[in-house]
Amino acid sequence: MNPRQQCIACLERNPPSTFEAASWIATEHDGQVEFQIIRDQLTALERSVSAALPLLPAAELAQPLLRQLATLGFQQDDAAQPKPQAALIHKILERRRGQPLGLALIALEIARRLEIPLEGVNFPGHFLLRVPGADHTLDPCGGRRLYPKDCRELLLRQFGADMQLKAEHMKTATPAAMLQRLSRNLRYLHQLNDDLLAALKDATRVMELGQANTSDYLARASLYQHLDCPQAERFDLEHALLLTDDPVQKLRLTQRLQSLPSGRAIH
User: Residue limits of the Protein SirB1 N-terminal domain (predicted)?
Assistant: First the structure.
């Protein structure tokens, strides 16, 4: 199987192997990735974290785990010009810098190995973690506790006053949802760094990992436009048109479709 198929196969296991699936995504972009090195790095990290954890019940160890990861140097990548290495799991392990989701995937895998209850929360703009049943979430970048007021402030800083905290923002993230979000992050980072073919891999993976939304189809259509693939662009624009409920967007998509060449191009 190729890396994409291996990634999807990891999600079909019971239970799903989310961290391994993320490693296969890294392999799809970097053929030099060695799984044994990733496993050895993670095992060494698990031992370091475990040795420093206090003697508390497992349900109380999630925050100490995250704090210990921060002590070991795992921090949010705040580079002014973000690069794909901030989201690729093998690079995060190597550099100890990454996006919140990448740091969370490492924390979740160590928690799983140490039998510490911990789950992902698909919060907009900043992935979060939570002990199941807790009244707060945890920031994967250091372990800070976030209560509803803190989550509202986080939304305000990132999206402005128009974005209100909703129950759906606090839903537990499934493995497929985490990998789909990871793929969206990589799509953005690769496009930002002018690697359109890599971004196209990520955009297509988004479609294969779960239900795609209007923005997903528009993002891939934009890539096809830059790569001069009008028929593939048309396919995605037509799907975006079917999904959107916005009348203004419907009009713009219709106009854009009408501007595309009608003949079949070979690429």
Answer: 38-183
Please report the sign of the dihedral spanned by the C-alpha atoms of residue 29, residue 32, residue 36, residue 39: negative
Q: What value does the mean pLDDT take over residues 25-46?
A: 93
Strand partners, 120: 129
Q: How high is the pLDDT of residue 218?
A: 97
- The SS3 assignment for 139 reads coil
Using CA atoms, how far apart are residues 130 and 19, in angstroms rounded to an integer?
17
**Can you tell me the distance from the alpha carbon of 127 to that of 139, in angstroms, rounded to the nearest whole number?**
8
How many domains are there within the chain? 2
Region class of 195: left (phi > 0), else alpha (psi between -120 and 50), else beta: beta
CA angle 142, 146, 45 (to 5 degrees): 25
Euclidean distance between the first and the last CA atom of the chain, given in angstroms as a whole number: 25
**Residue 43 belongs to some domain of the structure:** yes
| Number of neighbouring beta carbons within 10 Å of residue 56 | 10
Q: Are strands 75-76 and 97-98 parallel, antiparallel or unpaired?
A: parallel
Whole-number Å distance between alpha carbons of 92 and 80? 17
Give per-residue pLDDT as tens, 85-106.
999 999 999 999 999 999 999 9
Both tokens of residue 16? 């799903």
User: Would you mind telling me the total number of residues written for the chain in this entry?
Assistant: 267
Instruction: Please check whether residues 154 and 28 belong to one and the same domain.
Output: yes
Residue 144 and residue 249 in one domain: no
| Residue 264 maps to a domain | no
